[in-house]
Amino acid sequence: MEITWNQFVISDNKERLDVDVIKGFLSRSYWANKRPEERTLRAIENSVCYGVYEGRKQVGFARVITDNATMFYLCDVFIDEDYRGMGIGKKLVESLISCDDYKDLVGLLGTKDAHELYKQYDFEHDSERYMRRMPDYVRNMARN
C-alpha cells in the first residue's frame, strides 16, 4: 500500500521504516516504554507495519497484527509530536481500516487517551469482554 496525502506518504514498505525513530518514540510512550528494544524489533519484523513520511523523514507509524481472516489488532500508533494536529493520525487510521485487507475484519486496539479518535472509525469500548496477561518481564519488574 502506498497512499499520497498532502505532502505525506503512507506506506507499508518495511524498507522505508526508520527503526531508530520508531524505537525512540516508543521508548517515550506510555504503552511501550518498558518494552525491551529487541522485542520492538521482533514485533516490527512479525507485523504489518505502516510508516508515514514527509519526504524521507518518518513522522508516523502503526503496526497491525492479523490472521487475515477474522481480526486485526492495531497497535503502536504514533505521530511525531511536531506533526500533530494536522490530521495525519486520522488519515493513517482511515487508510488502514478502509483498505481491502482489514475492512471486513474485527478490529481491536488498546488506548488510554485516544478514544475520541478511534470512535470516529467505529471502534467501541468493550471493557467487560477483554482480558490481558502481561509478559513475565513486566510482572517481574512490578514485583521488584
Tell me what the structure shows.
This protein has 144 residues and is an alpha+beta fold. A 6-stranded mixed β-sheet has the order 1-2-3-4-5-6, with helices on both faces. The chain is globular and about 50 Å long. Helices cover 30% and strands 26% of the residues. The mean pLDDT is 91. It has helices at 19-28, 37-45, 88-98, 115-119, 136-143, and strands at 2-5, 8-11, 48-54, 57-66, 71-79, 106-109.
- Sheet having the most strands: 6 strands, mixed
Strand order of the largest sheet: 1-2-3-4-5-6
**Which structural class is indicated by helix and strand composition?**
alpha+beta
Q: C-alpha Rg, in Å?
A: 15 Å
Number of strands: 6
Helix fraction, binned, reads 25-40%
Share in β-strands:
25-35%
Oligomer: single chain
How are the elements arranged and paired?
Elements lengths: L1 E4 L2 E4 L7 H10 L8 H9 L2 E7 L2 E10 L4 E9 L8 H11 L7 E4 L5 H5 L16 H8 L1
Parallel strand pairs: 5-6
Antiparallel strand pairs: 1-2, 2-3, 3-4, 4-5
List keywords for this structure.
about 140 residues, about 25% strand, alpha+beta, six-stranded mixed sheet, 6 strands, 5 helices, about 30% helix, globular
Describe the structure in brief.
This protein is 30% helix and 26% strand. The protein has helices at residues 19-28, 37-45, 88-98, 115-119, 136-143, and strands at 2-5, 8-11, 48-54, 57-66, 71-79, 106-109.
